[in-house]
Amino acid sequence: MKRPLSLLIKPASGRCNLNCRYCFYRAELGAREKADRGLMDEETAMSLIRSAVDASAGTLHVSFQGGEPTLWGLERFMQFEDELRRYADEISPGLKVSFSIQTNGILCASDKRWAEYFASHDWLVGLSIDGNQPLHDGSRVDMADRGSYETVLRAADNFAAAGVKFNILTVVTDALAKKPRQIYNEYKARGWDWMQFIPCVSDGENRLTAERYGKFLCRLFDCWYSDIAAYLSGRSSRRISVRRFDDLIRAAAGQMPEECGSRGACSIQFVVEADGDVYPCDFWCVDEYLLGNIKDGIESLTGSESAVRFLDEGAARPPEGCLSCPALIYCRGGCRRYRTEDGKYVFCEAEKALAGYAGERIKALAAYLVR
User: Fold this and answer.
1) Which of 88, 184, 263, 300 is geometrically suited to a Cys-Cys bond with 296, CB 3.0 to 4.6 A?
2) CA–CA separation, 196 and 171 (whole Å)
3) What is the side-by-side order of every strand in the sheet holding 165-172?
4) Residue 140 backbone phi and psi in degrees, to 5
5) pLDDT level of residue 186 (50, 70, 90 thresholds)
6) What angle do CA 42, 285, 309 make, to 5 degrees?
């Protein structure tokens, strides 16, 4: 049965030109029998295109991630989009196709053609930046252990100059969580109005505790709330988005959050590796959850034993004590990636801290910002 479809493609598998100290996908690769899948070849790309378009109705969104997806090469992206749009026009006229990419920005800093292409073809770009230079360079280093901050800033400048729609993706480490106001104000000063913050769960010095994350969210909320209040009162025309807070407002209004980890149950995300193998989620690209290969068609993947098991496991309710918690409306038990073996959400205390601190303001904003 055809339906709106979204896929996440890893055209360069887990290959990357950075060596970030908290990278979770490197660990996933190490847990697979066949780790690196190389670069996606033309035959696999065409199989992916045909399978995706054949299964889509209404909308088809294609997102690229890695590793570092730009290692696939700009020309391959251009060819992929051309072939997909051509096939969609032939098979499914009226299908609305959109593209996005998550990048570390390294190749986009030295070659402005990336920015020009993303702008002219209306791609949404997520650019990974971790706060200011000391924080970023403490985590996001190249193979020679050199920081990448200045290079990524050049990519951001290229995007802004070309008119690319881009947001900033930040991994919240323990060190970064100590400076929410500084990070928010720096992003704001640079004109980065779309921000996303993801908690780090890596072991070692980067590991983020629930207590630290809760304090970070509360202080960050204060910064954001001040700007939202100015926007709603007409004192400012600038609408700044922090994705987590936008989702909290949707939840308070009874709507479904955008982030799948806040929806209360897993869904199949169709993560396509470079060789066409498909997994249900970026956090679960391991042999245990292999759905099949894209050449077999979307429907066969959806009905596979691995897909059914993944959905069943991802639908597990949170522990009984959570059911009466006032923060449950926001976290819905938390992303499965952040749950312990007994089902407890590791950032439970952070969610409760934010709900207690900002809950009334979140509910009030829901009446104004959700239509």
Assistant:
1) 300
2) 8
3) 241-242, 194-199, 165-172, 124-128, 96-103, 56-64, 3-9, 271-272, 277-279, 292-293
4) -105, 90
5) very high
6) 120
Whether 282 is catalytic is yes
- 279-282 CB contacts, 8 Å cutoff, 24+ apart: 280/306, 280/307, 280/310, 280/311, 281/310, 282/8, 282/25, 282/65
Which residue of the set 222, 275, 282, 296 is catalytic? 282
Residue 371 has pLDDT above 60, yes or no: no
Q: State how far the alpha carbon of 203 is from the alpha carbons of 6, 136, 174, 336, in Å.
A: 31, 18, 11, 18
- Tokens describing residue 128: 């990974």
Classify the C-alpha dihedral 194-191-200-63 as positive or negative: positive
| 330 contacts 251 by C-beta, under 8 angstroms | yes
pLDDT in tens, 8-59: 999 999 999 999 999 988 888 888 999 999 999 999 999 999 999 999 999 9
In terms of DSSP H, where are the helices of 68-167?
Answer: 74-91, 106-110, 113-120, 133-139, 149-162
Burial 152-186 (b: 16+ CB within 10 A, else e): bbebbebbeebebebbbbbbbbbbbbebbeebbee
Give CA angle at 265 (203, 346), nearest 5°.
25
Q: CA-CA distances (angstroms) from residue 191 to 83, 162, 167, 349?
A: 35, 14, 10, 32
Number of other residues whose CB lies within 10 A of the CB of residue 144:
6
Helix (H, G, I), strand (E, B) or coil at 326: coil
Annotate 349-362 with DSSP letters as a single string.
Answer: HHHHHHHHHHHHHH
Q: Which burial class, exposed, middle or buried, applies to 198 when counting CB atoms under 10 A from its CB (0-12, 13-18, 19+)? A: middle
Rounded to the nearest angstrom, the gap between the alpha carbon of residue 335 and the centroid of all alpha carbons in its chain is 13
**CB 147, CB 133: distance < 8 Å:** yes
